[in-house]
Structures are given as structure tokens and as C-alpha cells.
Amino acid sequence: MLFKSIVPLLCAACALSISPYLARAATDEEQKQTDQKQFAIELDPETFDEVIGAGNVFVKFFAPWCGHCKRLHPLWEQLAEIMNIDEPKVKIAKVDCTKHQTLCADHQVTGYPTLRLFKLGETESVRFKGTRDLPAITDFINQELNTPASEDLSGQQLKDEQNPNLGKVVELTEDTFAKHVSSGNHFVKFFAPWCSHCQHLAPTWEELANALVKEPAATISKIDCTQYRSICQDFEVKGYPTLLWIEDGKKIEKYAGARDLATLKTYVEKMIGAPSGSNDVNDATKDALDATKKQTVLQLNGKDEFEQATADGITFIKFYAPWCGHCQKLQPTWEQLATEALASDAGISVAKVDCTSPDNRQICIDQQVEGYPTLFLYKNGQRQNEYEGSRSLPELQAYIKKFIGHDEL
């Protein structure tokens, strides 16, 4: 199997790469030379189809300014150094989306980095949505490229060995917490064993982990705050249970919704940008969705709605992705801004465009949206420079006032 063939190479490569990447004794010049090494094949519109048509290719679509892309860079180059050998079963490549926007749009790239595996002879690529570490990535490659049916059993055993917590709640400790949440998406329950609400939630939490067994882009975990108080204090846990969404080691938000299985599952799928397959969302969730539709922010979908909304007057638009933590943090302020704009009767519209929607992808590309959220103000069809100020309500109001010329808002 492919996995067996690359494990020794992985071990050897790890041993060889520790020194140039991590050794404190390395000189600045040596480190600079190491950082300049490029093993991944850089693709552009002229070379893309030729390389993809010649074999299996795993492509990283990225933007140089993207923090997540920068963190992934050393691992991606290490993977390329391992895999890009003579007659490889898969080539490791990359595309700079700031240089080749149309190419990235053609492959449905709406966030960075996006990792897609192009298999020889297949028209559709497969998107990698797991945690960005070597075991998860190599397991993905093996799973996608393994074809002999006779090896299914051994493949499953290997998968179980690599993912011992697949479909289970990961129990964290003071020693394992930081490493576990350092990369990827994590839904963490901070609890106390004596807490009755925690006890009531426990079986649902286990069911949630099992229900997301086919969605490796997020892990479900828990930590006992009576044993590991310092961690709970670091995350400002003041009551039990506290459910936090953590991305790449940073707290994104505190979950405040219903604690039934359907609602929790829908929340996770929303945060990772996965299509929700749940048909049993409870009434509370449906009510919340209905309320969202009644909000004062205009939800623009499609080219016609966008052009109509921006043609006349002043329209302030938030380009966003549903899974983006910064976008979610801005949402209440954006709603308040829209409410006050509506009340001012000054002909000001506050709107939003979901860049992950197929109807809006080309709009976001045309408007040069390179990160989320991106805020653009349009006056009589003319787009102004990107808003890069504070996202507080007073600052956003002051910005709009510059374009209306008087104190309407």
C-alpha cells in the first residue's frame, strides 16, 4: 500500500528536516537558505492542465498573505520533498491565487488554503477537509488512491491505528490540550463531573462525535475543569458546561444554542462550511433560521441582485464566509449598523454577500475579495477603496457619513 511505502520516507524526512527548520543553533544564513527551498511544483494557467493530465496531483491553492497558508508552508514543502520523487504516485503542487484568480475560481476556491486532490482520469477533484498535519494528509492520500479491494480490511485497520479517536469524544488533559487544539477546528466541552447539566449533555456529546465520523474537519473533545483548572481559566470558563469553538489554538466563539444533537450537528457543519445533511433540525433551529431571514441586513444572491443593490445611492457590503470566525464576530455589529441605517431614512443600504455560495463566487472574484470579511462601500455603482478601519459601530457609522456628507446616521 502507498501508506506503507511512504512511512519510512516520512520518518527519514522528519529526522532530516528537524535541523534546518527547528534547530536553534542554525545560523541566520542557513535558516534563510532553508526557507527559500521550494519542493512543491508551482502551477499557473499554462502548466496546470498539462501537469494534472499526467498523473495524480495534490494542489494547495493559497494566498501569500494568508496566515493559515504561511503556517502550512513548511509542512507542504516537506510533503513535496518526500513525494515529488521519480515516478511519484502523487505530485505535490501549489497555485498562488493572488496571481491566478481565474484559475482558482474555476476550481471553486473560496478560502485559503484550499487543498484539492486531482486524480488521474477523473474530472472532479476531491477537497481535503481534515486537520493539516502529516498523518491526516497522508491518510487522506492513501484513502483516495488505494484501489485494490483485497486490501480493504488492512486499510481499515491502518486507519483505525492512525485515528484511534475516530467517532469518539477526545478526552483532553493538561499535557495534551495545547497540542491537540493547535491546528484545525475543535468543538470543546469544558465541564465538571458534579455538574448536572454536564451529566445530561454527556451522552449527546458522545452521539455528536459519532454522528460526525465522516466529517474529519473538526474534532469533538472535552476537558475536566476540576482537574485542569489552569486551562479552563485561560479560556475564561465561568460556568459548566461551556462549549467553545477553537480554530488553530484560538477561541473563536462560545456556543450559546440548544444542546440537542440536531442543533449541535448543524452548528458544527456551519462552522466548517460543510453542507448540512440533517433533515431533523428541531423547531428552535428552524425559528432561528426564520429570524435570520427577517434581519435588516440585505442578503444579496446572484449578479442581478448585486448590481441592482449597488447601482444607486450608498450600499455598504460585507463579503463573508459562514465558517469565518471574524465574520461571525462582526455579525451583531453589522445588524445594528443596518438597523440604524434603515431608521435614518437616508437611502443607505447595509448588505452582505456569502462568497461560498455558487451564485456569488464570481462576484467575489470580480470584486477582488481576498479574505473574510471584506468590506466595500459602493456609491452610485462605484466601488470605493476597501474599508480597513476598526469594526466597531461608531467607526463604521463615521465611515458611512463621509460619503453622505451630513449627519444622517
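^ that was protein a. below is b, sequence first then the C-alpha cells
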Amino acid sequence: MIRLEKRPQPSQLWTVLTPVMAVLLTMIMGGILFAILGANPFEAIRTIFWDPIFSAQFASYSRPQLLIKAGPLILIAIGLSIGFRAGIWNIGAEGQYIMGAICGAAAGLAFYPSDSALIFPLMIVAGALGGWAWAMIPAILKTKYGTNEILVSLMLVYVAQTLLGSAATGLLRNPEGMNFPGSRNFKQWDAAHNAELIAGTGMHWGVVFAFVAVIGAYVLLSRHILGFNIRLTGEAPRAARFAGVNPARIILICLGLSGLLAGSAGLFEVAGPAGQISIDFNSGYGFTAIIVAFLGRLHPVGILLAGLLMALTYIGGELAQLMLGLPGASIQLFQGMLLFFLLAMDVFVNFRLRWGKREAA
């Protein structure tokens, strides 16, 4: 008989091993999946994880893309991780990301074609506030009426997607775009363009903000009383109440920070790599960031590394589709496996396997 036995303390060894084991199992099962689809599994794994960085044929394009893809994932995941640490489950970062892009783009387009240096900073503030305001909806509903933030934040994603389609075809549509859906292209407007800071590196202001968020989250969680209260709320809610921690305040702060960072990520994306508001602007970064947060063990430095790894799967997945003819859905399934195996292996952090009959009480 095989059974799980509760550990007296979480295993530090398994805490470190779990992400590594999850990545290895994902490679193995992903290889089997690719073999079933008719591709060479070893070639597919190499294309996803090796070629984007080390292949001379693709590296000149892929290396800058690594930072471009990783920036929004890290920025959103940092915000999510702060809430997750407190036991507050914001699943609607995708909606906050979309609303940040819409609000930031609208703020910039309101001053078109001005060349003022204040346009882009204004867009950053508007994008961050747009994501924050969208996150405040589940926050206020939870604190005032006890609603479930998981369901409310998730349902708001679909509302945001509807508003995105409405903005792209209506309010923010380019009046000179011959009735095609989509806003003006920010890449053609220097005052509002989130351009590369160093040509050919993929480094733009969104990536800089992501690195700053990593440092800020580390200081907050490890050196500040607020970070201690957030961790205490997640690990020992009763102790937090006895210590005088206001749970409503923690909910508002955590969801607000999540929305703020997700909205900022949306603005940096729409003003930079994406270039415009379009009906298909949302790319699933808000949902993928959940995988990044857990793969990074909810630790800022871990999230930085996990964001780079997940960005690598995006770029490598695109190469695999192009070079090996793999369907896009298989790459999404491959990414989903990573979260599945991570959660499965997480069991061994708190439990150990035991063989033999259970002793009578």
C-alpha cells in the first residue's frame, strides 16, 4: 500500500527540486506528445530550448525577443505573487493587462499628434491606473460583500476582452485606417512609442520596469513590515488577525499592486512590441504569468528566472511551429504541462511517500 504522510516541516530539498523536476518531466512528456504528432521529439525539445539562444541561424532574432516576451510575464507575475503569498487569488490579470493597454493607449491618443515629452509618462500612469481600477472591482466586492475574488476577477477578463474589441472597432479605431479595426500605430509616433533603449537587445522601458519590480518585491517581502504582514496573512491567517493585521487592507493592497503591474505591462506592450490596440491584442500573458509565479516559487528572483524560461518556450514554440510544422495548440499544451507537473511535484514538499500497511490507531 502506498500512502502520503504529512511532513512535520516542509522539505527544503523538495522546494528546490520541484521546479527542476517539473521542467524535466515536461520535456519528457512533451517529447512523447511531439512524437505522437509525427515530429522528432529530441529535435522538437532542442528547437524549443536550445536553438533560440545558441543557434547562429536564429539567435540574432530570438535573443532580443527573449527580453521582449519575458518583460510582461515577469511584471505581471510579480504582482500576482504578492497576492498569492497572502492567499489572495487574482486569476484575472489578463483583464487588468487589457484594461491597462486600453487606458494607456486612450490617454496617448487623446493628444495625437503632439510631440510632447510628457505623452509617454502620461500613458504609463494611465495604463497603471487602468489595471489598478479593474483589480479594485474584485477587491471591493470581496471586502464589502465577501465575494470570491477568483470568480470575479476571472469573469472580468471576458468583459475586458469585449471592451477591447469595442475600442479597436469603435472609440480608438484609427480614423485614417480605411475602416480596418485597430488604433493608430504607436511605432510611427515617437512621443508615444516604447522603443528599444539599446538597439538590437529587446530592452525597452517595460523590461526595465520588470527588473525594478523584482527588486522592489524582494525588498517589500523580506525587509518591510507590510511584506511581513502579507506573508503572515497567507501562512497563518489567525495569527495575523491576533497580530492586528487588517485583512481588508491586505486584500486591497495586494489586488491593487497586481492590477497596477498588470496594467503597466499592457501599456508597455501596446506602445512597444504590439504597436497598437487591436481585436487580438491580448496574448494570454496574464494567464501564463500564473505559471511563471508558481514556477518561481512566488519568490522575486525565482520569478525572474521562470519568466525568462517561459519566454524561451514562447520563442522556441514559434520556431517549432515554423520549422517542424507543430500545431500551436501543442505548444500551449506543452506550457500547460509545466504548471501541471509543478503542482503535482509540489505534493512532495509537504508530504512523503510511505509503503506498507497503515498502523492501527
